[in-house]
Amino acid sequence: VYAVGYVKLLITVVKYIPQAWTNHRRKSTVGWSIDQILMDVVGGTLSIAQLFIDSSLQNDWSGVTGNPVKLGLGNVSLFFDVIFLLQHYVLYRGANKVKEEQYDSEREILLSRDEDEEMIRHR
Asked: Cα–Cα distance between 103 and 61 in angstroms, integer?
């Protein structure tokens, strides 16, 4: 059972590295939502808090270190979350606005309402 937990911890470490590297290489975080990271911060914080609260209520602090995978997952998630938050809000803040403007044409509607209605009538 512990082996599966360590595999999950390894996968968690590996899954964050490509996004952090891509953001660094492009010097931008455009194209992905920061909302997921903000929710991940809450999840990681609550996970670690649960370890401390459970240990406190049991008056046995070995509960914090007794589940190294859970402690590791929370800490790894928070570590990368801090990196992503710094990239998004501090390091590449101005770059995101410039790069988003390059994609404005992709957000424009392709058909006007009249053309859309005309296509529907001809079906």
From this structure: 52
- Find all residues with CB under 8 Å of 42, minimum gap 6, and list them: none
Contact by Cβ (8 Å): 9, 72: yes
Task: Report the C-alpha gap between 103 and 76 in whole angstroms.
Answer: 33
Kindly tell me the sign of the dihedral angle through the C-alpha atoms of 39, 61, 57, 66.
positive
Distance of CA 118 to the CA centre of its chain: 42
Backbone angles phi, psi at 30, to 5 degrees: -65, 140
- 2-6, 84-88, 93-97, 99-103, range with the lowest pLDDT: 99-103
Residues 23/84, Cβ–Cβ less than 8 Å = yes
Contact 102, 26 (CB under 8 A): no
Do residues 80 and 9 lie in contact, with contact meaning Cβ atoms separated by under 8 Å?
A: no
Residues 45-79 have pLDDT tens digits of 999 999 999 999 999 988 888 889 999 999 999 99
Q: pTM here?
A: 0.73
